Amino acid sequence: MWLICSFLLLGAAIWYLGPFFGFGEVRPLEGFEPRIVFLFLTLIIFLAIWFGVPGFIILAMIACASVWVFTPFILIGEKYPLASAQHRLIAIAIIAFITLLYGVVYLVRALAINPALLDNFLFTRKAKPVEDVDLSEINATIRDGMKYVRRIYSGLPVWKRFFISSRWRSELPWFMVLGTRHSGKTSLLLSSGQDFPLPEQLNRVGKDNSPTQHCECLFSNDALFLDTAGKYLDKPKESQLEWNGILKALKKYRPVNAVNGVIVAISVTELLGKSQAELLNLAATLRSRLDDVRSTLGVRFPVYVMINKLDQLSGFDEYFRNLTAEDREQVWGVTFPYSEEKVSVDMALEQRIRHELGLLENRIRNNIPVRMQEEYSAADRKGMYALPQDFRMLSQRVTEVLQNIFFASRFDETKFHTTLRGIYFVSSCQPANIELLNNNTLIQKWRNVTSYKNPTSPASVTKRSSKEGPLVGAMAYGKQFFLKQLFRDVITKDGDLVSYNLKVQSKYRFQNLLGHAACIGAAVWLVWAFLVSFQNNDGYLQVIKTKLGTLENTASSYAKTADENVLPTLLSATQLLPEYGPLDVNSPDLEWRYGLYTGSAVAHGAGNLYDFFLQRYLFPIIEREAKTSLSNAVYAADSKAIYESLKLYLMLTGEGKFDQHYVVEEVTKNWQESGKIDPYEEKGIFIKHLNMLFTEEKWQEYGHAPDAALIKQARGILAEKTTTARLWERVQADLQDQAPANITLRKIVGENATQIFTLSDNELLLKGIPGLYTYAGYHQVIKKKLTPLLFELQLEDRWVMGRSSTPAADPLTLQLDVLSVYLNEYTLYWKRVLSSVRLIPVDANSGENSQGLSVDIILLRTLVSESSPLLNLARYAVKQTTLVDKQKEKPLLDDLNLRSNTYLINQAQKVQERYAFRENRRIQELVDNRFDGLRNFVNGDSRDSGSGNNISMLQGSPMTQMMGALNDQYTRLVVLNSAFDNGDIPPVSNDGMRILAASQTWPDPFKNIIAPLLKGSSSKLENKVIAQTSKAIEMSVGDVCRNNFQGRYPFADSDRMASLSDVERFFGTGGTVDNYFKKNLESKVNTESSPWRYKGSESGEGLRFFEKVAAIREALFDSNDGRKVALEFSASVRYLPPSITQLIMNFDGDAMRYSHGPVTPSFFKWPGTRQGTLVSLTAQRQQASALPNIILRGPWALLKWAESADNVKQENNGKQILTYYMGNDRVEIEVSGLMHGNKNISDLLRDFQCPSAGSMRI
């Protein structure tokens, strides 16, 4: 009881004082959840203590609850590490694991002490098969006994039964009777003098009764006696299940105090007629049965030991014959104090029993002389004399047996409390045919010797002679000794000595208390709930009344002004009308549900009003906006917008198949574009209004009739496009989201190949090819989803176009038409891609910098490598442009694995195969055949189309040949580049140009990739050759030219003269320059062009020098096949003043004298006879004074003479007029032959320039 009170006080403290408990400003138990957790924990601890659960488990539960409730408020540093529920669960799991580990260790220690504890868990012992025991009779016996006792309780009023607990269970004491089969238990009870009200039991009093089979309830007015069968002691193992059944039935029907005491009946015959070992076995069985009753029923009860059949002792009848009926009712035995504890007892149980029985023996012995004097018969006195001796022998056996049954045990409550209430000697009947003979008497010893007997017991049971008549035998049940007062004043009066089963008794008391408290609490709570509910609902109605007033004003304002900006407010106010603070209208808390809850009615009315506003005000606006959108689309002649708007308008007006999801999505999109959704603040609010509107059955109630003229006009515009075009637009829009990802150039050629490839089409480069127009797009999307989607869209198109009543087009034909549109677009996309693939342009110097040619080498090496991006591009392109598998696909019906050849299946197969054939043929015509050139180029044979992993798979194809040619070109470029690096000028073949010419016949994308690369590499190669040639010229003839002629006359205005022989060796035929040109450049240079150019190139770098040399050779070298310098010229005096009588011109020994007269030209050669050493001009006058002369010497004197003229005039006929002033006289000489073309030879020589980096003039 104290435990229950403690639990109630602790629970009240947790609930009412918990919110005030805390540290600082933290109140862990302020909320409901932690207090409920601790109340539940307190209850668990209460039950754990009650049932003896180990303490470490209780501590673990307390720790887990503390972690869950208190640790979220623990601050470590700047964080609360256990604020998260997941972290707390981890901590609780760790505590549980430690507890489990400790429990395992605890169990291991227990098993180390007693290994047998684990046998029932680990081993299944094979017990001997036992017969099924029917316990129904036992349960029925005890159940009937309870029903009989319940009659006392059934007479009480109902109201009294409610307040009075089941006291009837304990008002009538129950006593269990134990004994062996022939101990006389039933006769003892029926002879006890108790009043047995049942007629069938009363009829058995004073008669011989058959042995009890299982158990029997004997009802008396003072007690109920449960008579058990003797087999529970005689055969304990065989009857164990029945015995357990009796105890379980008692515990079930009498859980508090199942029995008030146990009566143990032991007959004198058993005590004196059995051996020592048999008595020890009997004592052990009795002790076991008493322990079973104690442990199973949970009660401590007194045990009454009755030594029955005392009349079988010798002299009993003679000794007690003089007792009256009243004397025979008294108690003859020993009664011990029951409440006495062991610690207060002065002597041991065995000594105390022996002492008390010794007193009884002394009393008999002392009374023998008196009784012998009262009897006259010698035989009676003789028999009476043996009684004290036999009783002493019986006392010894009783002492031994009871010592073994009731000695104190250290392991149960018998250590502290005695259970033996008393020892009583009784006789329920006195049969005359049985007697006990003391084997210790002299006469009996002689009898045993003569009979060759060796008895092990103190006495022997024998049958008496039947000299007595039948009258004596019939009187055997007429007298009872020492029973009536024993049952009336001792046993039945001791019914309250039993210690109740405190657990069960506390349970019933707790249930009774809890039930009454619950009823009172429920009544108080209901009254409080009604009051609170009434107040809540009354306040709710007041708020709703205020809201209704505001809503009425808003509705009136909208009805007058039709301001669409007010409608969102009206709808929201109507929708939120039932809302009230934290109240959940559809699922209110308990404090709202008692009394008249009005939230549901208000919500229903508000819902109806909200639906009315949606249908009356919102839907007409939606319908009007849809019509406006359709009108604008018709005006703009936008077929796509017309179709979408017409479809929406038909749905709203009831002319089309309604799709709520589509309508909500389209209306929302249109209102967002027009800005009409802005007053609704949030898109989700507007969508919610639309869904609520279209959920109603009569959402079109306030709609208008459709505009037939507008619909006809819209359909007319749409009809301008074919059905196929319209359907393909719809299919394309619907399947675009389901298509694979777009294919980019990176995916086509590989991750790293995008460093060398690009697309000239910027749109494809940025966005890639739409996934719908790919191999995967066709096979995964179009092929699988086109048929069902097209069927659905065809049905939609029919009612949108108003053709629902007209016959539908053939779906297979329509599907092929739509597929054709798709395939044409597929082909166009891939033609665009393949024709726009290019190499990324590289800005490299093609002159002396070798980086330009190195880039081409790198590109070629990448293209001809094993993992060539060009191969990847080819394989991918072939795969993407080959949509039909060459292997015939199995018909769909083959998957059914049907072997039947029925007509229906055959026809279905034919239809399927026919359509598949038409579809494949259409794909081949529109896609595959258009890329046959690419496929044949890559694979060599269309039958072997497919992608491979290496070049060997493409062996023999044109692409293999192309790759081989590119590989050869790569090798040539590497060799040439290496030669250039070494300073050599290798011969350049025209193989690259042949490949370039062949590339013009290749399909896209190869010609657009290879041709620019080859053309660029050829150009760079030529530039390299030219650069190397120029460098070689500079290093060879350039050095000679600079050393011999640079800065020398006639190549420069200098006093230093170039040697004539050097000029002839350098410029002449077979000279230095001529030999170099013929050896290195003659085959490479086109001398017919002006200026000179390298063959096959526009470049003439370094050739100007040789062209100048050739011009000089042609102008100066007219002698000895161009090996010697020779000039042939003519001179004539064109004007000579009168003051000069004669003009003498001497050109290297050839003189001409001119006097005034006819002008005739004179012809000269240079060098002349003097080998070009002198040129002079002498004028003779009339006076005798000396005239100045012009005298020039040296191999280049002729050129200096021509240059020394004061004025030079160029005639159209190629002649020159040289004007000299001799003094004041002017002389004009006409010279012919000193020109090369239109240029003076001196100027020709002056324009000559030696090869050098600085291109300096000489």
Automatic annotation (TrEMBL):
Residue ranges of every copy of the IcmF-related domain listed in the record: 571-882
InterPro entries noted in UniProt: IcmF-rel, IcmF_C, P-loop_NTPase, T6SS_TssM-like, TssM1-like, TssM1_hel, TssM1_N
Transmembrane segments annotated in the record for this chain: 32-51, 56-77, 89-108
Organism: Ewingella americana (strain ATCC 33852 / DSM 4580 / CCUG 14506 / JCM 5911 / LMG 7869 / NCTC 12157 / CDC 1468-78)
Protein known as: IcmF family protein
SUPFAM superfamilies the UniProt entry points to: P-loop containing nucleoside triphosphate hydrolases
Keywords: Membrane, Transmembrane, Transmembrane helix
Pfam families tied to this protein: IcmF-related (PF06761), IcmF-related_N (PF14331), IcmF_C (PF06744), IcmF_helical (PF21070)
Domain Type VI secretion system component TssM1 N-terminal: 238-518
Domain Type VI secretion system component TssM1 helical per the UniProt entry, residue ranges: 1037-1105
Domain Type VI secretion system IcmF C-terminal: 1132-1232
